[in-house]
Design a protein that fits this description.
With 182 residues, this protein is mainly β. The chain has 4 helices and 13 strands.
Length: 182
Amino acid sequence: MSDLGTVVAVCRDGGHRFSKPVIPSITLLAGLGVEGDAHAGVTVQHRSRVAVDPTQPNLRQVHLIHEELFEELARDGFRVDPGQLGENVTTRGIDLLGLPRHTILRLGADAVVEVTGLRNPCAQINVFQPGLLKQVAYLGADGRLVRKSGIMAIVRHGGRIEAGDPIQVEPPPPPHLPLERV
């Protein structure tokens, strides 16, 4: 276990809107997600997933994005700030997309989440900023889809988190499983 990162911002929205406002702190609830967030729940809360099967487990309780992505997007002419892509936690200093499935992230003093997979970006990103979807989801040189719009996690242990909190990373024992779309 090591201190590798920092919480840059935390966000929550009780409605199903694309962006979430930055707030001073959020509380994670074990097995549910972010208290007061529209995506909190034991079963899936994302509208497209509910339409397919409302009984499936919610593997998307907490959405994390690395702030470094915003800097990369800015080089391509896109301005994105914390919360605007719908994440609950904006991080710095961790290669979120490179983590294996089942990695444990300790956020602040008490909160613990388990990484479940990659966020699957949707066309709403182009409504937010035209052309942005092609920046965060595209075919790589090997012909496989690259997804860069963050990762999803479930809450293992609740707690309050805020900007400036440390993030500790605990990879699972090998063999490590790559992140897939959830």
